[in-house]
Specification:
Blueprint: H1 14-31, H2 36-50, H3 61-87, H4 97-112, H5 115-125, H6 131-138, H7 142-161
């Protein structure tokens, strides 16, 4: 007789296990430094960045997750400082030809992205909206926004690998 606990259930991957094991812990740690909405966004982005790692090679998952999340938080603060400086009229360095090529590549990737994913990606990455704000704006759940963002990021990664 088959074990009914295993029937019809897909096996969880290492990333799923890491998420279930540490996402709440990471969210609580991040809430000490940012609001609940931003902490949830950072947790999602952290796991997107963690995806390329082989789960069996991760010896200290908490340390790695915290390092990725901290780097994301710092990057976000740097972007906000540049944005604030730009809005205040400060001089910002002009783009180099390499930057222009990257901008063109990004534009092509965004144009090839399905509109549902592109809208979430643009609102989050370029407008600085939280997933909760995007969910309210679009009339969907935060989980739907997270799913669409993960699909948008997958789309970007696939296009960058081409």
């Amino acid at each position: 007789m088959a074990d009914t606990g295993q029937c019809g259930r897909p096996r969880s991957t290492g990333l799923d296990e890491l998420y279930r094991g540490y996402a709440d812990w990471l969210r609580r740690r991040l809430r000490r430094h940012v609001g609940a909405d931003q902490a949830a966004d950072l947790v999602q982005e952290t796991y997107v960045r963690l995806a390329p790692y082989a789960p069996d090679d991760i010896r200290h998952p908490k340390a790695l997750l915290l390092r990725i999340a901290t780097n994301l938080l710092r990057d976000g603060r740097r972007r906000e400082a540049v944005r604030s400086a730009w809005l205040a009229g400060a001089v910002i360095p002009t783009a180099t030809p390499g930057d222009q090529a990257e901008a063109m590549q990004l534009k092509q990737i965004l144009q090839s992205m399905p509109p549902l994913y592109r809208d979430v990606f643009v609102l989050s990455r370029f407008r600085g909206m939280t997933y909760a704000d995007i969910a309210r704006l679009q009339g969907v759940s935060v989980k739907t926004v997270e799913w669409r963002m993960s699909k948008a990021l997958d789309h970007c990664l696939k296009r960058l690998d081409d």
